[in-house]
Design a protein that fits this description.
globular, nine-stranded mixed beta sheet, about 270 residues, 9 strands, about 20% strand
Length: about 270
Amino acid sequence: MQTPPRVLTVAGSDSGGGAGIQADLKTMLALGTHGMSVLTAVTAQNSRGVQGAWELPAEAVRAQFRSVVDDIGVQAVKTGMLASPELVETVAALLAELTVPVVVDPVGVSKHGDALLAATALDAVRTKLLPTATVATPNLDEVAQLTGVRATDETGMRRAADAILAFGPRWVLVKGGHLPAAADAVDLLTDGTEEHWLRAPRHDNRHTHGTGCTLASAVAARLAQGDTVPRAVTAAKEYVTGALAAGFRLGSGIGPVDHGWRWRGGA
């Protein structure tokens, strides 16, 4: 039997199953890869928000990473919630040893507005983590948090991309889903030379929990399969657009995107 491409997620747990490690592994399976995980934090989380969060010791994160990488090996890595300066620096040092694609989702807050990254960790994200990234995938709020650039239109998204690229990732995907008054969900992928605008229709569906985790994981899965960055991001955008359209009610708050939409009658 052929072993599928192996993708590692380094992120926090979402007990409600819509985002974090759980969303990452579902996405990796849906896109034909073998997902593996390094848990950085545990959250008590549901459709209404995050009720509590507890980060793991750096030693535990390092041990998980070494266990997977040294024995099984990886063909791409995706990072999500890293919580603290110590964990950011620990993960960045581990990633710097690799030669495979790395997708950095600089998670700052949850869909419900709950902080998932200490303010004291921002400098470590800028100077340690982002330089390891093949692709960084910030949304507009995360760009503002990291750079001070607040984009309100597509020209602003170009400035936002330049500001993130200055920290050293090879590519940046600025996610414009929060762009005010935009008719489409528009994202900008650029390496400072090439520029790719990705557009998709907005769907009238409030159940969008896990969108960012899902997109970053989809990019990592496609990179593990050998896609170029533009091809990987285009395919990931298509997958996430379908997952958003199929998002479903769960609990009494914001439900998740549907990671299995293609298995449930989607295209």
